[in-house]
Amino acid sequence: MKPEQFIIYLAAMAAVTYLVRMVPLVIFKKQIKNKYVLSFLSYMPYAVLSAMAFPAVFFATGNVISAAVGFAVALTAAFFKRGLITVAALASAAALITELIIRYVI
Amino acid sequence: MKKGFFRGVADGMPIFFGYISIGFAFGIYAISSGLTAKQGILISLFNVTSAGQFAAVPIMVSGGGIPQLMFSQFVINMRYALMSVSLSQKFDNKINLLDRLIIAFVNTDEVFAVAVSNKNKVSKIYMYGLILPPYFGWAIGTALGAIAGNILPQVVTSALTLAIYGMFVAIVMPPARENKACGMSVLIAIVLSCIFYFVPHLSSIPSGISVIISAVAAALIMAAVSPIETEVDIGET
Fold it and tell me: Which residues of A touch B87 (CB under 8 A)?
């Protein structure tokens, strides 16, 4: 790829990504008062993250079993109110250990 | 008492570490796809979006068209528009246009989720503190992966990609446990997302679109069934 071509690609993707984020943030300045809209906006974040995680998480590591074990560990840790780093680290570690067991032990 | 700059940085640190690992995976991916380390880092510095970047690399290296690239970014990143609407309601009244233009640049899934999970309105300096660690974590992770990616065995890097989902779980679990309606909207979104993924004809719909449809439908249903009466927020932290 020529450097000029890369710059064009980079500018095009950055522009789209930025505009999608920026326009609504700039337009919606006033407080929304309608309770249905407010409710929608407060439920939506958690619904988006859940839809992104399910079922994609099971295919994240390239092995459904290690991904499922990592995910189960994350659910358990989060259930007991561990923080972001702890949950993320435990999920990765559990997936790694499972993957190693599958490869070298079983 | 509103949270200040350093509280924002502290809240952003978990995202920093999560982004180091996912950025690492992106750096490796960029190099193995044929981009230079510099190009991979530039992509991360100017986009700050994991799924979009992973989708853009094959289009770039295969010489795909600009419209195709832009359309893919639009579809995958459309969710940010919803998040920005929601985030706008969280800002206190001292956040001006310039602040909005800057914060929008780093409004990622995790930054957004952490910001809205604050009980009170968020201040300008809190937001600036919050976006700093993720932004640099993403860039540093990409650089490390692009330059030193081959040091780690593949089994480690693939396990690291689970970190992002671990963060999602840690963000969603507390409000979903505490608030029944929030928990229900999470369950509905999961069921819909699985339907999109596994039902034959629906699975050809790009995931950027199916995620939005699932989330919007779930939040709409629960907003209609169980609207929040007072102006309390369901988030915590």
Answer: 25
